[in-house]
Write a structure and sequence with these properties.
Number of strands: 5
Helix content: 40-55%
CATH topology of the largest domain: Hypothetical protein af1432
CATH architecture of the largest domain: Orthogonal Bundle
Bound molecules: fe (ii) ion
Strand order of the largest sheet: 4-3-2-1-5
Number of helices: 11
Number of domains: 2
Oligomer: single chain
Length: about 325
């Protein structure tokens, strides 16, 4: 694993990896649409670069996953899912080869959406029953395209194929139940749901990270593997990057870097005082430093204070 570095040291590389990953997934989708050969070597390299960045400092790519353009959902989601799977896989100490394959699977999990008609894929309202059946085909398409591509590992195919399977058999495309779903399929389902519900979309605002983790607990058992959900919550942290938190002093801060040793003591950027109800000079505080007197009371909903968290992340 790459040695750890500070957030500011990693941010430049993370920005590069993030934009390269989006471009590559985009070009893969375009090639898949016309049935052209997919350049697998590039995606292998990128999956390696991405894992190295997360090992050096997971908060760098984590931050970028919280700052999204609303009209670029599919690409941002694919990249962010691979970041989440890297964090999750590293937490579970999976072997390097397995990690590599599942991170590739996360990057390419929605590849099959390139074959979903635009009017279904981009429909703003609720899908009709027939449209949903068409939408569901994307997981099967992802599986078929990837399994027909040379140089793509079996676990990459499984990760992509099973990302919508659910524990009670209500998922798709195969309606697999419980342990019929591979552990990687169960892991990616959790990360996929978490990323989807915490993302801002064109027509609604995403949940905060803390609310998103609570939802996962609600859905664990029937839909998601409850043991894996608990592990995911542990590795994403009490206050994931991008969480807005209220400090004992009355200041509000955004978590910009998590502290793996003690999740209650991340690095936060403060910018508002709730006692005076006014903005304050933006300052970054490491809560783990002995000189610091402040502590987190609890996470708060950014809408409550009309704060755009993304503005303060980088
Ligand atoms: Fe999907």
């Amino acid at each position: 694993m790459a040695p750890r570095v500070s957030l500011s040291e990693e941010m430049g590389t993370a920005l590069n990896v993030h934009s390269q990953a989006q471009e590559l997934v985009d070009s893969f989708m375009k090639s898949a649409k016309i049935g052209a050969t997919l350049d697998v070597a590039q995606i292998h390299k990128l999956a390696g670069d991405l894992q190295n960045s997360v090992s050096r400092n997971a908060s760098a790519l984590g931050c970028l996953g919280r700052i999204r353009e609303k009209d670029n959902y599919l690409l941002e989601h694919s990249v962010n899912l691979s970041v989440l799977m890297t964090v999750f896989g590293q937490h579970r100490k999976l072997p390097a080869d397995v990690m590599h394959q599942i991170v590739m699977g996360a990057l390419l999990h929605d590849l099959g959406k390139i074959l979903t008609p635009d009017e279904v894929l981009h429909k703003p309202g609720r899908l009709t029953r027939e449209e949903f059946e068409v939408m569901k085909l994307h997981a099967r398409h992802s599986r078929d395209i990837l399994s027909a591509t040379e140089g793509i590992g079996e676990l990459t195919v499984i990760t992509a194929a099973q990302h919508h399977e659910r524990m009670d058999g209500s998922g798709y495309p195969e309606g697999l139940k419980g342990e019929q779903i591979s552990v990687y399929g169960r892991m990616v389902a959790i990360a996929d749901v978490y990323d989807a519900i915490t993302a801002d979309r064109a027509y609604h605002r995403g949940l905060t990270p803390t609310q998103g983790l609570k939802k996962l607990l609600e859905w664990s058992g029937d839909h998601l593997d409850s043991t894996l959900v608990k592990q995911f919550i542990r590795c994403i942290g009490l206050y994931p990057v991008g969480s807005l938190v209220l400090l004992d002093s009355g200041r509000l801060g955004i978590v910009v870097e998590i502290n793996e040793e003690d999740q209650r003591l991340p690095i936060v950027r403060v910018m508002y005082h709730t006692k005076f109800r006014m903005p304050i000079a933006v300052t970054t505080i490491d809560l783990s430093k002995a000189s610091n007197q402040d502590r987190i009371l609890h996470a708060v909903e950014p809408g409550q204070y009309k704060i755009d968290v993304r503005k303060f992340l980088v």
